[in-house]
Every structure is written in structure tokens, then in C-alpha cells.
Design goal:
This protein has 17 helices and four strands. Helix 6 (105-132) runs antiparallel to helix 8 (150-167) and helix 9 (174-204) packs across helix 15. With 424 residues, it is mainly α. It starts with 12 loop residues before the first helix and ends with a helix.
Length: 424
């Protein structure tokens, strides 16, 4: 009977390398394996840190530029990220030998992907698209028909893909094909269900997209730095390099950053105004009570030399604390889930598109969880506080057909003209 010699050999670099080749699962001896993998014990950590920092600077720079350009460009960025994520996940269970006997089978994955994209974004952006083309009669009629038949169009596109799949079934490959079919739908649920909340947040106001996304980045960087310099106590077996020191330090940093960052971002109309069309022009709106400053006098025991006698707080900063708490305690579990998933498939990263970080999916695991929470929190605690006549009218219009909307606009225009004629 073969005996595993790894238990009797010393923990040399060669023996550790053999274990990684055989499996990426964590060694049962947690104290030894984790001690070698922590960042404070990694001999190449400074080189790895430089590569990671270089990529981070480029990502943050591109992200800031996209935010400056506006809602449509942020939406385009989300779509590009989704495509990269889908590509990485589609490739995860791909088998070259089987695919060589199934010409055109991979195109079917992308057919379902773009059908899901049309369905999800068509529902979110349909009313904004109508508002964008109101000045052009032909485009208005065309868009109206597209909106009216949007659901049936997506349904028949999906049915076409379903029939395509059935017609491509081959003997002795049924198990692989049905497995790929199920895997494709699982990817669409994971990527689109959560990403749709991201797009909804963008058009509610860039603030509700930018603040949650920034908190995940801050938490990730802070956890890395605290773990880099102080990490000694392993946090979870799924991620051997994660430590309690990094987790706790990042939590405090993220919550404090949420309170301060909400004040900075909340003063810009470009970030706080919702976008009700698909144009790129500057936005002007009443920021609402959440973004109007309140002033609190400092206690009498503050020294006289202190330059401020009162502090300015935006009400939205109190809501930001809840976002920061979620980003620091709950959202990291999205990363732990991804780590467990990668270990199940014996891979280090989902891809290598971002040096020092892995693939796009590796960077977006926590962002997806955070985007869903930000949307639910906004709809549950923010929207009820800021309901206006304009928002009520928007909701009414969204429930009307294209012909009913046109009739309503015509009637309103007639009333306005009669009112102006009566005044003259």
C-alpha cells in the first residue's frame, strides 16, 4: 500500500511545490501552511506589492476618468466588465477536445449572454430612452415600438438559442453539452442579476454607484496593507493570506472613510442628480434634504485654539455608515466565496487580465454583493424619503403604453398653450 511521504519529509520548498501541483486545497496542518502563506512571511511580497500597486493606480485612474465622463460611459464600463467576467467564467469548464467536435457551440454561450443583456438593460433604460428621443418623431415612434415589443423580442431570441442548443446535441456528448447549458445559465444569473443593480444605481445618481464601489476598493487596499505589515493571525481557511489584523484594520478604515467620503461626494450635483435620459450633458437638480448640510456646534470643552466652532454634516453621511459597515464585514464574504470556488476547480485566479490581481472576476466578487445591498438600501430607506411629484409622474408614465404617453403629452401641451393664450 502506497504511503504518503509528504508527512515525513521536512517542509522544504520542493515538498510544498509538490503539494500545490497535486491540489490547491489547504493542508490539514493549518498552522504550518498558513504561517508560510501570510504576507508578513512572504519573501517576494515587496515585488508583488509593486506589481499590484502599479495595476491599482492604472485601474483607479481609468475609473476616475470614466466617472468624470458620465453615466453612459460608466454603463459602458460595466458592460465591458461583464463581458470579461463572462469570458473568464465560460472558459472555466471548457474542454478543448469536446469543443473541437462541436463547431459553433461556444457562439451559443454568447447568444444567451447578449439576449440577457438586451432583456435586463432594455427594462432598466426603456423610459430613459423614450425621454431622450422625444424631439424626433421618427425615432420616437421607432423607440416606442422597440419598447412595446421588447419582452417578446427577447423571449423569441432566447427560444432561438434553445432550439439552436437542441439541434447541436451529439451522441456521447450529451452530458458535456447539458452541463455547459446549465453552467451558462448560472453565469448569466450571477453576472446579470447582480450587475443590473449596479446600472440601476448609476442612473439613480452616480453617488449611489461611486460610494459603494469606492468603499470596496478602500476595504481591499486597507486589508492588504494591514495584513502586509501586521498580519499574523489567519482569518479563514478559504483565503490563507487573509488575517484578523487585516480584517479589523480594514473595517475601521472603511467605516471612517464612508463617513468622510459621503460628505465630499455629496456636494456635487453631477454625482447626486439622477439621470432621466441617455444624454451626456450637465445635470442640475434640487439635491434633496439628504444632501443639504446640517451644522452642529462643538462641545464647550474643545480648546479655544481649535479653528472650527461647528461641524458640517450631510444627512446622507449617516446612511453611508451602514454602507461602510456592510462593505467591511459582509461584502468580503463575496471574496471568500470566490476563493472557495477557485479551490474547488483547482485554479489560482479566474484569469490574468490584471497583473497582480488576477482576472476581472477576482476584482468584482465583492463589488457584486455590495451593489445589490446598495440598491436595496436605497430603495428601502432613501427613496421613500425623497418621493416628489416628479418621481410620481415618472412612475405613472412607466406604467403607460407608448400611445397613452403620447396622448398625455399632447393633452398637456394643449393645456399649456390654452393657458398662455388666456393670459395674453
Amino acid at each position: 500500500m502506497h504511503k504518503d511521504s509528504s508527512s515525513s519529509l521536512p517542509a522544504t520548498p520542493t515538498s510544498r511545490l509538490r503539494r500545490r501541483r497535486g491540489s490547491t486545497e489547504i493542508s490539514p496542518d493549518v498552522s504550518k501552511s498558513n504561517g508560510d502563506q501570510l504576507l508578513v512571511s512572504d519573501k517576494n511580497k515587496y515585488r508583488s506589492m509593486l506589481v499590484r500597486a502599479y495595476s491599482t493606480v492604472w485601474m483607479i485612474g481609468g475609473f476616475v476618468l470614466t466617472i468624470y465622463m458620465g453615466h453612459l460611459y460608466i454603463w459602458a464600463m460595466v458592460v465591458i466588465i461583464q463581458i470579461f467576467m463572462a469570458k473568464e467564467l465560460f472558459s472555466l469548464l471548457r474542454k478543448t477536445h469536446e469543443d473541437s467536435h462541436l463547431p459553433g457551440f461556444r457562439q451559443l454561450n454568447w447568444h444567451f449572454f447578449f439576449t440577457a443583456m438586451l432583456f435586463v438593460y432594455g427594462r432598466i433604460l426603456s423610459q430613459r430612452l423614450v425621454n431622450t428621443v422625444t424631439s424626433d418623431k421618427f425615432l420616437y415612434q421607432l423607440v416606442g415600438r422597440l419598447v412595446k415589443y421588447h419582452m417578446v423580442t427577447c423571449y423569441f431570441l432566447y427560444i432561438a438559442g434553445f432550439m439552436w442548443f437542441i439541434l447541436t446535441l451529439k451522441k456521447k456528448m450529451y452530458k458535456y453539452q447539458f452541463g455547459q447549458y446549465a453552467w451558462t445559465h448560472m453565469i448569466l444569473i450571477v453576472v446579470f442579476t447582480q450587475s443590473s443593480f449596479t446600472v440601476a444605481n448609476i442612473f439613480e445618481g452616480i453617488f449611489w454607484f461611486l460610494l459603494p464601489a469606492s468603499l470596496i476598493v478602500i476595504n481591499d487596499i486597507a486589508a492588504y496593507i494591514f495584513g502586509f505589515f501586521f498580519g499574523k493571525t489567519p482569518l479563514i481557511k478559504l483565503s490563507p493570506k487573509k488575517t484578523w489584523e487585516g480584517f479589523i484594520g480594514a473595517s475601521f478604515t472603511t467605516i471612517i472613510s464612508a463617513f468622510v467620503l459621503a460628505n465630499v461626494l455629496g456636494k456635487s450635483q453631477w454625482l447626486t442628480c439622477p439621470r432621466k435620459d441617455l444624454l451626456t450633458g450637465w445635470l442640475h437638480c434640487d439635491p434633496g434634504p439628504l444632501f443639504k448640510p446640517e451644522y452642529f456646534a462643538l462641545p464647550a470643552w474643545f480648546p479655544d485654539w481649535f479653528p472650527w466652532k461647528e461641524i458640517e454634516v450631510l444627512p446622507v453621511q449617516w446612511h453611508a455608515l451602514w454602507l461602510g459597515l456592510f462593505a467591511s464585514i459582509i461584502a468580503p464574504f463575496g471574496g471568500f466565496f470566490a476563493s472557495g470556488f477557485k479551490r474547488a476547480f483547482k485554479i489560482k485566479d479566474f484569469g490574468d487580465s490584471i497583473p497582480g490581481h488576477g482576472g476581472m472576476t477576482d476584482r468584482m466578487d465583492c463589488q457584486m454583493v455590495m451593489a445589490v445591498f446598495a440598491y436595496i438600501y436605497h430603495q428601502s430607506f432613501i427613496t421613500p424619503q425623497s418621493v416628489s411629484v416628479e418621481m410620481i409622474l415618472d412612475q405613472i408614465l412607466m406604467n403607460l403604453s407608448f400611445e397613452e404617453q403620447r396622448a398625455l403629452y399632447t393633452k398637456l401641451a394643449q393645456i399649456i398653450q390654452e393657458s398662455q393664450f388666456g393670459r395674453s
